Amino acid sequence: KYYAYATDRQTYLNNSPDMELTTQESAHLSRSLYILGVLCKYFDIDSLDFEDFDLFTVDDLFQLFIYYINHDCNQIKHKSLIGLGYYLQRYGQYLLQDTVRHLYTSYLIDENQLKIIRCQILTNLEDYFRDCIRRISEEDIEHTKKRRQNSDGQQQNGTTTKDNDDMDNDNDEDSNQKKQRKKSGGGGGGGGGGANEDYSNLKDTSDIHSEMASSIAQCYLRTILDTYLTPITAIRQCVRKVVNCILEQGLVHPVQFIPNLIAMTTDNDLTVQQNAEQNLQELDKTHPGIIQTKVMQGLKMSYQLQTLLISSVSTTNIIRGMAVIPNQQQQQQQQQQTQQQYWSCNHFLYSLIRTNRTYRRGLLTQLLKMFDDTTTSSLEEQLFVADNLAYFPYQVQDEPLFIIQTIDLSVSVNGAGILQQFREILKRQITSSEIEEDDDEDVMLMEKVLSYSNAVIS
């Protein structure tokens, strides 16, 4: 019924491309596509139970969803995406096809695409990964049952064989009867082998689901992570859910997530921020030192995120690297007689790294290098880094003293050269061709500046 109506409207639209569906027709079509997707989620039409079902194939239904996703009506497009998401939970192999991959990727990276469409694609991916987790968990339970049955069967078979051997010794039976009993015992062992075979088949099925989910995660990972850099909070929340789901299942090596997780800890959405902090903390425990490998990329992504967030709510281009402490935490700080009202945007990242002196000093050194003459960092990014350095949660004197010592060393090496450059620039401004008679006061002031620069240089 629902498939027939959807195909009928498809034929109608193909024959009359200039015609539009009425509101009632659009609602009926959207409902039909949604129900078709739900039916695919719970019923496998490729199974033997549906061998007499010849109205349409799995591929026919897939092509139907793709057709309506490209429809101009946003309501139909959205419901088609929902139906396709349910469909792909059952037939996940289509996620690796170029059609779906290009469709999902193009919609996610398109900033002009509707927010609800982009969020639905991310929700579809999350639902698929969570469904994989559910299936693998169910198969693990089935593995455990089969293993127990196999173990119980072997124990029972061993007990029966031992009892038979004792009876053979007591009754002094002939050798032919003993051989016959041993053959019987061998038959019992064959039953155990059948259980082993069932267990092996179940494990292979679980491995297939896990490998497919891993391939799909790797296929869409780069696009998902790039989608996070957006001022739209709903999209960032959806990305956070997908990332968390992939990390929970361990489908991809976690090092690829670290820059985004570091940026998420600076998100103004509290849910995203807390979840990212938890993920980073778990990674730091299970993979010591892994965060340090991507820390600078994470800080740069934090700056990009803050730029997007501020540009969406303000016309100013000044991106600061500190934030006001939330009310609850500010009250705790006041109870501890602390006057600090701000903290670094990347305070949590520093709190993870500061426990290791080598990692801590490595981070601080890399941040200070961003102020060298050879740096390509913009002035705005340098301000963001300077704010972070000023408001990091230092605990011991060694931390700020190391920064002071490094800055002092840099100034002693490069400071004289910088002042000399200023001196030469100022000299060019007061050449004889530019000096006028009524500029005596300006010349005297300029000479004082030059004298002061000479004193500093010497």
Structural write-up:
The chain has 458 residues and is mainly alpha-helical. Among the domains are: 143 residues, no CATH class; 45 residues. Helix content is 74%, strand content 1%. It contains 17 helices and 2 strands. A two-stranded antiparallel ribbon has the order 1-2. Helix 7 packs antiparallel against helix 8. The chain starts with a helix and ends with a helix.
In short, what is this structure?
With 458 residues, this protein is mostly helical. Among the domains are: 253-395, no CATH class; 414-458. The chain has helices at 2-15, 23-42, 58-69, 74-90, 98-109, 115-171, 175-227, 233-249, 258-264, 270-286, 295-313, 327-335, 347-353, 357-369, 379-391, 398-429, 440-457; strands at 322-324, 342-344.
List the main descriptive attributes of the protein structure presented here.
458 residues, mainly alpha, 1% strand, repeat
SSE topology sketch:
Elements: H1 2-15, H2 23-42, H3 58-69, H4 74-90, H5 98-109, H6 115-171, H7 175-227, H8 233-249, H9 258-264, H10 270-286, H11 295-313, E1 322-324, H12 327-335, E2 342-344, H13 347-353, H14 357-369, H15 379-391, H16 398-429, H17 440-457
Antiparallel strand pairs: 1-2
Helix pairs in contact: 1-2, 1-3, 2-4, 3-4, 4-6, 5-7, 6-7, 6-8, 7-8, 8-10, 9-10, 9-11, 14-16, 16-17
